Amino acid sequence: MPGLLSSPVCLTVIWFLSWSLRSCSSAQIWTDEVSDVQYGRLESNVTLACGKSQIRTPVVWYHNRSAVLPRHQVTSDGRLVLLHADQSAQGNYSCYNDSGLLLHSVKLRLGHPPGLLSISCQVPNHSFVRCSWEEHVKTFLPAKYNASFKGTGLEWRPCIVNVAIKHCDVELPAFWQTFHTLRITQTNDLGSETTYARFKLHELLKPNPPESVSVKEQDGFPKKLVISWNIPSSWPVGDAFPLMFHVRYRPHGSMYWSEIYSSDSEVVVLDALAGHVHQVQVRARDDVNSESQWSEWTPMFFGRPWAAYTTPDPVEDPDDFYTFNTTPETPTENPRDSTSDDEGNVGLMILLVSFSVVILTTVLSLIFIVWLRQRRRDHATIQERASGQDEVHANLM
Ligand SMILES: *[C@@H]1O[C@H](CO)[C@@H](O)[C@H](O)[C@H]1NC(C)=O
Ligand SMILES: *[C@@H]1O[C@H](CO)[C@@H](O)[C@H](O)[C@H]1NC(C)=O
Ligand SMILES: *[C@@H]1O[C@H](CO)[C@@H](O)[C@H](O)[C@H]1NC(C)=O
Ligand SMILES: *[C@@H]1O[C@H](CO)[C@@H](O)[C@H](O)[C@H]1NC(C)=O
Ligand SMILES: *[C@@H]1O[C@H](CO)[C@@H](O)[C@H](O)[C@H]1NC(C)=O
Fold it and tell me: How far is the CA of 125 from the centre of ligand 5 (A)?
């Protein structure tokens, strides 16, 4: 018997049987499913045919397996006309003949053909352009985009599309050209539309904000702050594209900023308000191209000039403790959370320390008392060896 089971003929038969069963069952599922998708315009009359051939017998239509249909008419040849179809008219439609046999089913999706797009482009350095777009009118339907880009008098080049995030990227645009044009064609099952946008790259050039800002005190200088930062990581390193930086600072709580412009990545403030925490922000711009844009400001950074007295106790002033870390005030980093965490840790530390102090004091006092008694007993033993011994023993008990 095992010989028979493992014989090639038998295996082939088993394989064939399982294969035909599987294909049979998947065919079964396939006929149950709605494989056709039909697209229609919202707020229009949408006609669904009951299969390809003309049908004379009366038919019954179902929507999402329910006999309740949106506002409609059924034509004499069995077609269903949905009147002024809205979103709820989407779904699966099936038509049956009068003996209950399924003739056809179709999935209906409703939306709008593409309209013009609103396009905006970001230029974070001289070798990269990212354009993103939004639909003026929502189409509600999946779309494809074909985007291309060119400088005046040059060839169209593809702009590489990311459909999910609705943007496209161009590397190494011809930056020396004054004008550039982006062309995006949006296509869905109801139509297609091409939008053109024309712009000047050198006016759109806008670096990302500087990074790693630090605000430091200098020992012995109560009015001095040293502010430094890194150029944005998306800006090329080197002297080819110099940046101009704009620094602003003010004592925490003041309305008025003091400002410094610098082409270095560090400035020294000599007029800080002694003893006060200061807020600091930095932004950057291409130093050569005066038509380009300033970056956004960095998040707020904090620092306090050196002071003769000791640094404040972090427990008494958690805000100051936090600002001493010169952490940016951004929600992304959640400095508040870490502050409260630190507060919690400090509280725990204090509790532990006080607890150990109490324990230590108790133990020490106990030892001291025992030692004292021992001494007194020794004393007594020496002085009143004969009479006092019993009494001292009783005391110690
Ligand atoms: C419509 O048909 C598809 C494919 O058979 C199915 O996945 C879907 O659940 C159906 N929708 C409704 C609302 O019946
Ligand atoms: C939709 O059909 C109804 C009834 O046949 C008709 O009155 C109406 O004008 C049609 N609407 C459109 C937009 O074609
Ligand atoms: C039918 O199902 C589709 C999803 O397949 C849904 O969008 C639509 O609202 C449903 N309509 C009704 C009337 O149940
Ligand atoms: C996109 O447009 C370009 C230029 O018109 C064309 O050559 C290319 O075939 C299009 N690509 C797609 C996927 O439609
Ligand atoms: C320009 O910016 C893009 C996007 O941030 C970045 O991927 C690219 O590396 C940058 N180019 C240079 C030369 O820094």
Answer: 6
Q: Distance from CA of residue 307 to its chain's centroid?
A: 40
Residue 77: the pLDDT is: 83
CB 319 within 8 A of CB 335: no
Cα gap 141→86, rounded to integer Å: 14
The whole-chain average pLDDT of the chain stands at 80
Instruction: Tell me the mean pLDDT in the region 47-72.
Output: 85
Q: Phi and psi (nearest 5°) for 389?
A: -55, -50
Pocket flag, ligand 3, residue 106 (CB < 6 Å):
no
> Quick check: do 117-204 and 211-322 share a fold?
yes
* Separation of CA 207 and ligand 1 centre (Å): 49
Q: Which token pair is 20?
A: 């035909």
Q: What b-and-e string marks burial along 20-40, b requiring 16 or more CB atoms within 10 Å of the CB?
A: eeeeeeeeeeeeeeeeeebbb
pLDDT, tens digit (0-9, with 9 covering 90-100), for 98-119: 888 898 999 999 999 999 999 9
CA distance 34 to 227: 65
Q: Does domain 23-111 sit in CATH 2.60.40.10?
A: yes
**Adjacent-strand bridge partners of 183:** 148, 196
Q: Looking up tokens 């008219």, which residue turns up?
A: 89
State residue 164's pLDDT score: 93
The class level of CATH for 211-322 reads mainly beta
Residue spans of the domains in the chain: they are: 23-111, 117-204, 211-322
Query: Is residue 182 within 8 Å of 131, Cβ to Cβ?
Result: yes
Q: Predicted confidence band at 17 (pLDDT cuts at 50, 70, 90)?
A: very low
**pTM score:** 0.68
Express each pLDDT in 179-206 by its tens digit. Answer: 999 999 999 999 999 999 999 999 999 9
What pLDDT does 211 receive? 96
Give the three-state DSSP class for 35. Answer: coil
Centre of ligand 3 to C-alpha 60, Å, is: 18
HSE value, Cβ hemisphere, 13 Å, CA-based, for 49: 7
Q: How confident is the model at residue 330 (pLDDT cuts 50, 70, 90)?
A: very low
Residue 90 CB less than 6 A away from ligand 3: yes
Place domain 117-204 in its CATH homologous superfamily.
Immunoglobulins (2.60.40.10)
